[in-house]
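Would you be willing to look carefully at the protein I have copied below?

:::
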Amino acid sequence: METTGTTVPKESPADTIDTNKLTERVRQAGSWVSSVKEEMRRVLVGQNELVERLLIGLLSNGHILLEGVPGLAKTLTVNSLAGCLHVDFQRIQFTPDLLPADLLGTLIYNPQKSEFTPKLGPIFSNLVLADEINRAPAKVQSALLEAMQERQVTIGDKTYYLPDPFLVLATQNPIDQEGTYQLPEAQLDRFLLKVKVDYPTREEERQILDLMATSAPVPETQPTLDPETLIASRALVNDIYIDNSVKDYIVEIIHATRNPKTIDPALHNLIRFGASPRGTINLTLASRARAFLQGRGFVVPQDVKELVYDILRHRVLLTYEAEAESVTTEEIVSRIIEKIPVP
């Protein structure tokens, strides 16, 4: 696949695209990326991959699920990102007694006018932090489905559209199972990425000690990105070029999760269900967004390989045999990636 040439053929031989000019447009439109990252470094230590995934979610118009043990700055990262944007932000603490109306809103009866008036809930915001989402019961989690997919909410007999941009950033704790409700597959599939937040390195933890071991308030990030610039960047992300060979590479990966025996017979009894076409679409969108963050007007296979774990982690369902053998989704995805030739 060509990545450095001036002109790359598109699907139609009559059409050509100048990747050099497209790359220049990307670099100009993405001048805000370094400003946002620099602003977040004032508050965060490390977590560079997490910050990149959040920016990919913004550029792809996709929701993100963050999973990690308590104390890894998941909530702080989302709060810091919200501070960098000129947008409305709402933090919703999910609890077992939360009701759908607490999230979406409800109809309130006005006795003077003898009519019901809508009271919109906190979901009507640009950036929504669903903190500890798996602590709310299924009826609350299901209330998010329409909002996350159609970006609208139905209250009574009327539909209300959510603002643009609209992004749900949810967190969950993987180790504390008491008082939690596992997210259903339909809910998980609405998330563009499922990002695992890991412990910091020794050096990073030393920096965290110097920065955070104080009773003083955590520094706040300053707004550096407005919604209009973000929406314009999204439009450019959609134009980023993907060679046919990379498209075929993405499709091969997704199909391998559904028919694993075609590439490795040993995987046949480990995968219960593979990724849906939404996985294909999201892997393509996220790869384009990563290319934008890297300042390129075209996608390379490395973009796909970097994001495939976050895309498939919550979409590939394992069999009981795999769980009994303590096989993880990441191990299965790694074996798939090893078997499929890179274009």
Notes: The two ends are 6 Å apart (CA to CA).
